[in-house]
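User: For this week's homework, look closely at the record that follows, marking any run of repeated tokens, and judge whether sequence predicts the tokens.
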Amino acid sequence: MKVFLAGATGVLGRPTVRALVDAGHEVRGTARGEQKSQLVRSLGAEPVAVDLFDPEALKTAAAGSEAVLHFATKIPPLMRMRSKGAWRENNRLRSEASRHLGDAAIATGASVYVYESITFLYGEHGDEWISEDSSLSIAWPAALNSTLDAEREVKRFTDAGGRGISLRYVAFYAPYAQSTLDTVRLARRRLLPVPGDGANFVSSIHVDDAAAAAVAALDAPAGVYNVADDEPLRMRDYARAVTDAFGLKPPRRVPKWLFRLLGGGPAKYILSSQRVSNARFKDRTGWSPKYPSARDGWEQIAASLGDGA
């Protein structure tokens, strides 16, 4: 299949390009500048320089593609997440670029359009398993409303006769993800705290498994799918999986009110409980994570990074 991938050099984009190429697909991926273009080439794909906010240029770039994947994001650093302005570009990518990519996919006759969505849309669900039919709770409008815009564009593609697929991913981790490297550094300094008793559930997925899911999605029926590993962990167990993997002292527990000082959305995200089920996606695609639990995934990360992180 000929695939056009927006966001080919991102944390999810890079392993997805590799997984697509390994599966025999012909991939064209967006890249800014010569360095990132060389990266895309090294992964076995053709780099494309295109403005995602230029609808006509996108139609030209995506011409001939049978699948269009929208994995372009611009997530601000944790310390800037409280600022609405920090989300401006990411929101444009989700709202405006999603519309342009959907139009390009329709205009060029693509059969499938896949969007990288997020499970944060579900909000707080306690110990309840979260399926694709669970209620949504947008507690962080500045960061999440645009995601709903993007999912509506996916549905519009389906209504136009294609297969629109929204993959609601859980929290990513991987040895090549900056957020993971930051987590390890904090853990080494015993600065990876657990809020309260740490009973809230954390759902996560190794990015290599997330990329494999993107490949599997090319053959999935239209719809919304949760993409997570098989074993959501309580926050205290997730943090312990990190420290145990690196042979570090257990994480400290701190009062929840300290986390609330982050304010608004970031605090609600950290303190929320999300026990996400991947059953629908597994049933409809046959996909299964290589790392069924964060315990397995963090052991792989420790083996990969060694003492270098």
In short: The CA atoms of residues 78 and 266 lie 8 Å apart. The longest helix spans residues 88-107. The first strand starts at residue 2 and ends at 6. The chain has a mean pLDDT of 92.
